[in-house]
Amino acid sequence: MDISDVLTRLRDFTDERDWAQFHTPRNLVLALVGEVGELAEVVQWRTDEEVLEHARTAEGHEALADEIADVFTYLLGIADALDIDLDEAVNAKITKNAEKYPAHLARGSNAKYTELP
Ligand SMILES: [Mg+2]
């Protein structure tokens, strides 16, 4: 997936509907929260095993893929509205996390970085 192609498509979709006027960062963050809620709705009340089982069905796979795509497109829209290069931001954050969680200290541990030895 090329993020810039997706971003172009998303901007075209928005412009064709004249929706940019509604896509303030605040509104997009709230829409993202709503979509995270919809994703949560797909997995709620299911055990971990049941979620994986659901994801293997056509209906479950589509429901999860739709909500994950909604979450991603809102994240992309928020980054765009705030002039944040998502590719650069994600890579910078992974680097920061790698520094916070050195593999030799964090391997196999679920401890927060402040609790690592
Ligand atoms: Mg949705």
Task: Please tell me about this protein's structure.
The protein is about 70% helix and about 0% strand. The chain has about 120 residues and is an all-alpha fold. It folds into 2 domains: about 5-85, Helix Hairpins, CATH 1.10.287.1080; about 85-115, no CATH class. Helix 1 (about 5-15) crosses helix 4, helix 2 (about 25-45) runs antiparallel to helix 4 (about 60-80) and helix 3 packs across helix 4. Magnesium ion binds near residues 35, 66 and 70.
Structural class: mainly alpha
Which CATH class of the largest domain applies here?
Mainly Alpha
CATH topology of the largest domain: the name is: Helix Hairpins
Order of helices and strands: HHHHHH
Distance between the termini: 38 Å
User: Would you tell me the overall average pLDDT?
Assistant: 96
The major beta sheet can be summarized as: none
Low-confidence blocks of residues: none
Rg estimate, integer Å: 18 Å
Q: Roughly what fraction of the amino acids lie in strands?
A: under 5%
Instruction: Name the CATH superfamily classification of the largest domain.
Output: MazG-like
| Distinct bound molecules | magnesium ion
Quickly count the helices.
6
Tally of structural domains:
2
What is the architecture of the largest domain at the second tier of CATH?
Orthogonal Bundle
